[in-house]
Specification:
Structural class of chain B: mainly alpha
Radius of gyration of chain A: 28 Å
Helix content of chain B: over 70%
Strand content of chain A: 5-15%
Oligomer: heterodimer
Distance between the termini of chain B: 13 Å
Radius of gyration of chain B: 18 Å
Distance between the termini of chain A: 76 Å
Largest sheet of chain B: none
Shape of chain A: elongated
Chain lengths: 201, 195
């Protein structure tokens, strides 16, 4: 028992000493940018970014070879802080296609439409115009992007496309909360602000 | 000599660490998406496994056995392997940037990998001598490298294959790994046949 404790103390201090000395003797200057990026990464070494670990990913970001949105464990907070650090645009997380695409709108490919009216019956907001054996079309401003018209179409002539951003439909981006860095008070005031904003007609 | 050859063959093919003993699965699944990454990981693992089986044999033989503290074996091995690998990483980083580029980033990842610890513990359990321990570690690493390169090559092809949507990504990878494991079970008994 005692010999075990003593042996481990001796072993650990020996290795500690050797590693400490080695860190001084074999010190290699590394790029401060890479170190700063590496400090932000979660250090899970999971390899989900397709790099071997967090440090290689940090190097690739610093070299401009990799985007900042490849780290699922870091999440949106990481993208935000990387964007702040590197002064680049915030990118959405590089995830599966259908999770994060923003608002969509349906479009009828008019060449293939056979005028069956099935999509008109399916549309909950009456955003599709047309009559039997006549070509149909979608009123873009009415379409909510619910995708209910996709299934009934027998010729698959309806496609979902992202809404083009114009001066008319541009809005301030939704506030992004970083719960770790915010006090309850600031969250509350932001919430109040958002509620007041939504209450306006 | 023939004995050592047999030991090598049996650790590489018959008792393959990844596909038969299911050790070291995290780097096997994690860094096998690109062939270059997989090769780097394989080389680093070869390095670490050989080094760790040598150092763990020395620690077991000259510290744990004389003091009769074998029950602390696992933690002692973790300590020793981590320290030795870290030290080597620093030396390599300073002295040979080329080698560091190939191995360096993988070394800290696999210091306490289950395969690394598994080899050290199996060495003690089977009662291998110093040279046999090193050979066993090296053979395990070659087996790991072989499987790593094979699997990475398959996955590179899978990336271009027409995989049904629900199987894309990790599921088809796991299925492939399972099939490879079944294939490697075909080597079972090969070492007895050679004997």
């Amino acid at each position: 028992m005692l010999s075990g404790i003593l042996a481990f103390i001796a072993l650990a201090s020996f290795f500690g000493l050797v590693l400490g000395l080695a860190a001084v003797v074999f010190k290699v200057e590394s790029s401060p940018v890479v170190d700063k990026i590496d400090a932000l990464l979660p250090q899970t070494q999971c390899g989900q970014c397709s790099f071997a670990g967090c440090h290689p990913y940090a190097e690739a970001i610093a070299a401009g070879e990799a985007p900042i949105n490849l780290c699922p464990p870091g999440g949106d907070n990481l993208i935000q802080s990387l964007a702040n650090l590197l002064d680049v645009e915030v990118l959405p997380m590089d995830a599966d296609e259908d999770t994060n695409q923003g608002p969509m709108v349906a479009v009828i490919i008019e060449d293939t439409c056979i005028g069956c009216t099935l999509c008109i019956q399916a549309c909950p907001v009456d955003a599709i115009l047309g009559a039997a054996k006549q070509m149909h079309t979608v009123i873009e401003s009415e379409c909510t992007g619910c995708e209910l018209c996709l299934a009934p179409c027998p010729v698959d002539c309806i496609e979902m496309i992202p809404v083009q951003q114009t001066v008319k439909n541009w809005r301030w981006p939704a506030p992004q909360y970083n719960a770790n860095n915010q006090t309850a008070e600031t969250i509350f005031t932001t919430l109040e602000h958002v509620l007041a904003e939504n209450a306006k007609p | 000599m023939g004995e050592y050859f047999l030991l090598l063959i049996s650790t590489i093919l018959v008792n393959n660490f990844v596909l038969v003993k299911f050790l070291g699965l995290c780097p096997f699944m994690g860094s096998s998406r690109k062939l270059e990454v997989a090769t780097g990981m394989a080389l680093a693992t070869t390095f670490v496994l050989t080094l760790s089986s040598a150092s763990s044999y020395l620690v077991n033989h000259y510290i744990l056995l004389p003091l009769e503290i074998e029950y602390l074996r696992t933690i002692a091995f973790i300590l020793v392997i981590a320290a030795v690998v870290n030290f080597t990483e620093m030396v390599v980083h300073k002295t040979s940037p080329m080698l560091y580029q190939v191995l360096g980033m993988f070394l800290p990842l696999i210091t306490t990998n289950c395969a690394v610890l598994g080899v050290a513990l199996l060495n003690v359990q089977t009662g291998y001598g110093f040279f046999e321990s090193i050979l066993f570690g090296f053979g395990a690493a070659i087996g790991f490298s072989l499987v790593m390169v094979l699997f990475a090559s398959i996955r590179e092809r899978l990336a271009a294959a027409d995989v049904p949507e629900i199987f894309q990504g990790a599921p088809i990878g796991l299925i492939t790994a399972g099939l490879m494991s079944i294939a490697f079970l075909g080597f079972a008994g090969l070492d007895k046949g050679l004997n």
